Amino acid sequence: MKKILFMATLFLSTSLVMGKSNLPRSREVVLLESTSPSEVMVRATGYGIDRKHRKPKAKVLDKSANTDAMKAAVWFILLGGSDPLIQTDEERIAFEKIQKEFFIKSNIRNFIAWEAEYYDKRLKIEGGKKLKIEKTYRINKALITESLVNKGVLSEESTIAGSVGLPSIMVIPEAKGETAPIELLKTDPNLKKAAEVIESYLTVRKYEVIVPEQQQVIQKLTATQYALEGAEEDYGYLLALSIGSDVYMSYNVSIESRMLGSSRVKKGIVACRAYETTTGRLLGTETGYSHERLVPDAVLIEEAMNDAIDKVLSRIMNYWKKDLKQGIQYKMIVTVSDVFNMDDSEDIIFSVSDVVKKVSKTYKENVVADYTYDVQFWCNPEQYRSSTDIYRYFKKNYKGNGEVKKVSISRKLILLNVVEE
Amino acid sequence: MISKSDSELLPQKNMVWIRKIFFLIFIFVLVSSGFAQTGKYTRKSISYVDVLLVTKRGIHLPDRNERYFLSAIHDGIKIARFDYNPLPEKVQSSFKNSYSMGGSYSESEIGDLIDETIASELIKILDVQKEIRARNLVTEVQKNSFIVLKAKEMGITAEQLEQVMNSSYLYVPFLSKYKVEKGKDKKDEDKKEITVSIKGGLIWYHLIAGDNPGVEKIEKIVARGEASDENHNSAFRSAAQTLAMNLQVRTREIDIFKLQSPIAEVVKRNIRFPLGKAEGIKMDEPFFVGEWVESNDGKIRFEKSGFVRVGTVTDNRKSAGQLSSAWAIKKGDWVRGMMIIEHPRLGIDIAVKPRWFTMNIEEGVVLNTDKEFLVYFDDYKGGAIGIDMDIQWNIAQFTKKRQTFFILGGSAGAVPINSRIYDSGLDLFSNTPTINRVAGVFHGYVGFMKKVYLGQFALHGEGLAGIQVLSIYDFHSNDYYEGEDVTISNNSLGLRFNLGLEYAVNIDCNVGVFAGFNLFPPMDWWTVKYDEDEVDMDNLVDWAVPKIYSFGPTYGFYIHFSPPTLPFNPVAILQSKLKIF
Questions:
Q1: Are the beta carbons of B393 and B570 closer than 8 angstroms?
Q2: CA distance A117 to A138
């Protein structure tokens, strides 16, 4: 009995609270595409109710359903889907404090860049008491982000990154067979176009983008990599390491076509993957599709790429936010000269490891071989602003046999050699 | 307390519940799939089999008429809302061969024959799509070369193969009745006019592509056509045209082919919607307005809340998104986003008008010695009652004015006048004439009508020009007519004007009252009709001519109905009437 009473009270209070809430009734939203760097297109469901009239009025139901769909669309950007803007518990708590005023219709309307003229679906439900609509909206995600930053819910991306800034991203097509990706960029106009779209998308969002246009010097790196046990050839990975991007993205493009009536319509399909440069770990993979259109391939690629890249970028930012909490990540490969015997080499690696412990906030050893040491570590950006600073620290603080010599230093990768003095 | 065995069972129980929930969700998705039909009409791709199936033994059409019949049907079904992809000859040939060998088939046999011949050929083509997917042929070059290869295997061109792959619907025409009548009894033996009655239709199939391609019968539609002419071929062709006209409406009545669209704007009693010339809508066409409602038992139905007629038609063939407009006749609680759904009609209404009208006769005599008639009419001043039957053909698409109609009609009535017919010297000598106490009054007319709607009420005005015929009958007449029945008539050409007030009871039916004025002056124009022949008859007594005229008011009731089909073709009727004049 007590349980029933408790449940009834809980239900009543919940419904009272919910009744007064201006949060969307519907949470049914589907992401359709990312139309531009700052906007996404969604299809949102809205439920319309009319509490004032015994027989619901069409206008009231329609207005109520429209408002609900609009709120649901914005809610989806904030909290729904796989890549919402609000992700951490702190952000969620901060948003709950302002959500009532945020979901005021006049405020929500500011973020609607465009709304469809017609409903995708419209159905009266519950015997005609409620109205369910589905409508397509284009939401200005950038404006929502800006608004949340102003309200203190989100930190500005530059603040997240602090002095380090946003991650630098290398973009490269997926290579199949023997052709190098840089060659593909030169020969395949579709891949070139896709690279341009990504470049444009990322630069609008103030990311540093690197599209390698010429053959990079990665032979040294390749040789070092081959020295590691179990290392595989991955052109993109090696290239990213040599360039020193934080993240690298690979992509492929295909155009499908079919006859529709007497016209041949085409559809662009783009797959986009993001990797952590230091480890080659997959951060996110997404496929983007264009609509079937009777337009040049470039337009389809742009549409499909916009669809894919926005989702991937969100994963990159998640990774970046978490990673930056630990500091700036570096990968270091130290090779010990074979003039040392195995025991000496082990001591040398231990000494190097000691320095790593001192210089880093945290670290992860990837491979410890007889003459090679592959490690990832995170440093305080305020103390060590660049890889050269770290190299300098190593040079100064290394206490083992031999002497530390630089092989190659890029933004993310430090290749060192320990040689006889 | 949960025992160990209970706790082990829990995940299983949960799984059962999860499965049940998923099953319910699946059922819900299936039920709500009807929701998909709530959007705007999308163009359909149509193919047809160019063979006429005869579903009744004993029907033999001459080749020329069969071809004409097929052309009439294909032309009738060729409407703006469809794209057309004719079936390749190779696909049809096996069907044609089997069909020509087997003679006539019943409907179920035809279904089997289609499954065995055309469907199997079409499935082969639809399988190509499946194979393309299975082989993972993603690039255009790969797909094209595969299609070309497959087309060669099947003996058709790559273009034809793609056309079939893109077609969604297919129809097969059939003929189930073909009757020719010249005369039913002895009296009709000499009748020159031949009446052809035909009944036929279309069997519609849906070509299902995807992983399980197939051909599914969706609907069989039937229509009739009837026409009369002295020439058998002309009568048949006119009947075929009528049947094709009716089949077009029956096709538009099929749910998947009905035009529908969301309302873009509601301003007072006017609505705007994104359909136009591309979909073939015409001014004054009726549409229901309503919305899709899911009832408590999960069924989705269209709930009508009024109806409109198209006011302006936009040309959206080149630039999509333009809006046509319609005005409400019966208006409900409407709002943007609700739906309009086509109510296919011929655009030809039938009106029935019982009425009273003025009829005057001034005493007089008609004498014709050749035909041996002396007819005497008494004075009469008063009214007559009759009933009009009008065909109201909506001509708004030609006049570009809403609610304008071409009227073709006739009426039959009776007037209580006394007349005496002396058809022999003996009658005259013995004063034993044939006495008529009632005369028939007939009208035939053409004219123009304009309606103006004020909500569900409408005012109409019409002007008609025609002929008035007052007839009396001489039963068992003189030797000249071999003792047969003869009709003697007085004719007058004149005008009539009506003003009416109607009420739209529903989308198809209006009722109302009207008042008008008859202007049929007296004319000394007499005819005598014997059997099928009607000839003019001179009146030799020009100093005592009876004056028969209708010059005065007329009042009546009005019922009009918009039928979905008609068994006759009013245009053909008009043509034959014009021949008479």
A1: yes
A2: 12
Structural domain that includes position A192: 167-323
Q: Taking CB atoms and an 8 Å cutoff, what residues of chain B touch A254?
A: 138-139
- The answer to whether B446 faces chain A, any CB pair under 8 Å, is no
Half-sphere exposure of B369 (CA within 13 A, CB side): 2
Chain A interface includes B292 (CB < 8 A): yes
Band of the pLDDT at B32, cuts 50, 70, 90?
A: very low
Minimal C-alpha gap between B292 and chain A (Å)? 5
Q: Do B300 and A59 touch (CB under 8 A)?
A: no
- pLDDT single digits (tens) B476-526: 666 666 667 788 899 999 999 999 999 999 999 999 999 999 999 999 899
Nearest residue of B to residue A56, measured between CA atoms: B333
A313 and A357 in a single domain? The answer is no
Q: In this predicted complex, what is the ipTM?
A: 0.72
Residues A300 and A341 occupy one common structural domain: no
Can you spell out the DSSP letters for B272-338? Answer: EES-BGGGT--TT-EEEEEEEEE-TTS-EEEEEEEEEEEEE-B--SSSTT--EEEEEEE--S--TT-
Does A255 share its domain with A375?
no
| Domain end point (choices A290, A323, A356) | A323
pLDDT digits (tens, 9 = 90+) for A37-57: 788 889 999 999 998 888 899
Report the CATH number that the domain containing residue A279 is assigned in CATH.
Answer: 3.40.50.10610
Taking only the tens place, the pLDDT of each residue in A233-279 is: 556 666 666 666 788 888 989 888 877 655 677 888 989 888 887 77
Q: Based on the structure, what is the number of domains in chain A? A: 3
- Residues of chain B with Cβ-Cβ distance to A120 below 8 Å are 39
Residue ending a domain, choose from A277, A298, A323: A323
Within a 10 A sphere around the Cβ of B320, how many other Cβ atoms? Answer: 9
CATH number, domain containing residue A355: 3.30.1360
- CATH number where A71 lies: 3.10.129
Q: What is the pLDDT of residues A347-360, one digit of tens each?
A: 999 999 999 998 89
Compute the count of residue pairs across chains A and B with CB atoms less than 8 Å apart: 76
Per-residue pLDDT at B520: 95
Q: Which domains does chain B have, with CATH numbers?
A: 44-254 (3.40.50), 260-342 (2.40.10.410), 348-563 (2.40.160.20)
Per DSSP, helices labelled H in A327-381 are 342-359
Q: Which residues of A touch B164 (CB under 8 A)?
A: none
What is the pLDDT confidence band of residue B446, given thresholds at 50, 70 and 90? very high
Instruction: Judge whether A118 is closer than 8 Å to chain B, CB to CB.
Output: yes
User: Is the same domain home to A355 and A415?
Assistant: yes
Six-digit token string for A186: 């030169």
Note whether A265 contacts B: Cβ–Cβ < 8 A: no
Residues of A within 8 A of B35 (CB-CB) are 121, 123
Residue with tokens 């206008």: A59
CB nearest to B296's CB, from A58, A127, A258: A127
